[in-house]
Amino acid sequence: MGVAAKIAPSMLSSDFANLASEAKRMLSLGADWLHMDIMDGHFVPNLTIGAPVIESLRKHTTAYLDCHLMVTNPLDYVDPMGKAGASGFTFHVEVSKENWQELVQKIKAKGMRPGVALKPGTPIEEVYPLVEGEHPVEMVLVMTVEPGFGGQKFMPETMEKVRVLRKKYPSLDIEGITHIYGNGQVDGGLGPSTVDVAASAGANCIVAGSSVFGASEPGQVISLLRKSVQGAQQNN
Ligand SMILES: O=C(CO)[C@@H](O)[C@H](O)COP(=O)(O)O
Predict the structure, then answer these.
(1) What separation in Å is there between the alpha carbon of 108 and the centre of ligand 1?
(2) Which of 32, 85, 58 is nearest to 207 (CA)?
(3) Residues in the active site (predicted)?
(4) Which residues pair with 142 in a beta bridge?
C-alpha cells in the first residue's frame, strides 16, 4: 500500500470573490487539501493572494491549507503565513539554495509542514539535500507546468523526476515514514486524462485546478483522481 492519496483542488481556479464557499464546496465534494497558490509578481509573472487572504479563509475552515509559495523571498513569508493559519509551506528550491535549512526550521517552528517545489527545468538532484537533511522537508512538489498560471498544458517529461524520487526514497511508501519524508506532489495541467501518468510515476498528492473547477461534476473528477492514485499504487 502506498502513501495516502491527497487530492488538492487548486483554489487559483476558484471564484476568489467567494473563496470561503468555494473551499467548503470542494471539501464537501471529497477534497483532502485546499491548494493555495501564493504568487508575488516577481518569482512568477502573476500576482495572486498572500497571508491576509489565508487568514480570512482560515476563519471559515479547519481544512489543511497546502500553500505553494511562488515568491522570491520565502523567508519573509514564514511568520505571516504561520500567523495566518497556513498548514503546509512549500517554497521553491531555485530561490532557497543559501538558506533552506533556516527556512525549514522556521517553518516547523511556526507549526507548518515544510515542502520544497521545483520548476520543470530544475534538476531533481537539487532537492536531495533537502529531503535528506537534518531537518528534512516533508513534501516535494514537482511542477508539471511553468509556475504562474492555471490551465496550462501538462509536461509529461517532468514525470521522470517523480519516478526517480520514488525510486530513490522507497520509504516514502511506508506509512509513518510518510510524515518524515512525506509525499511526492505534482502540480499543473493535471486532469482525468493526465493523472494516470502522474500516479503511475509515483505521485500521491494531486493538485488540479481547471480540471476540477471547470467540470460540470467536480466531485466526480476528485473521486476519479483519487481512484487513479490508489489504482496505480495497487499495481506497483
Ligand atoms: O501552481 C500552479 C500554477 O502555477 C497550479 O496550482 C495551477 O494553478 C494548477 O492548475 P491547473 O493547471 O490544474 O489548471
Answers:
(1) 25
(2) 32
(3) 37 (proton acceptor), 187 (proton donor)
(4) 118, 186
Residue type, 218: P
The response to whether 40 counts as a known ligand-binding position is no
**Of 72 and 203, more confident:** 72
Distance between Cα 160 and ligand 1 center (Å): 19
For the Cβ of 9 lying below 6 angstroms from any atom of ligand 1, the answer is no
Cell numbers for 148, please give them.
Answer: 504562474
For ligand 1, whether the C-beta of 211 sits within 6 Å is yes
Task: Tell whether residue 35 is among the known ligand binding residues.
Answer: yes
Query: What is the C-alpha separation between 8 and 36, in angstroms, rounded?
Result: 9
Q: How many A from CA of 118 to the centre of ligand 1?
A: 14
pTM, full prediction: 0.94
Judge whether 187 counts as a catalytic residue: yes
Beta bridge partners of 91: 116
Residue 68 beta carbon below 6 angstroms from any ligand 1 atom = yes
Q: Is the pLDDT of residue 66 over 90?
A: yes
Grid coordinates belonging to 8: 488538492
16: left (phi over 0), alpha (psi -120 to 50) or beta: alpha
ipTM over 0.95: yes
Q: Is 86 exposed, middle or buried (0-12, 13-18, 19+ CB in 10 A)?
A: buried
Per annotation, catalytic residue among 32, 37, 40, 66: 37
- The domains found in the chain, sorted by start residue, are 6-235 (3.20.20.70)
C-alpha cell at 155: 509536461
191 known member of a binding site: no
Summarised one tens digit per residue, pLDDT across range 148-182 is 998 888 888 999 999 898 888 765 422 222 222 33
DSSP letter assigned to residue 232: H
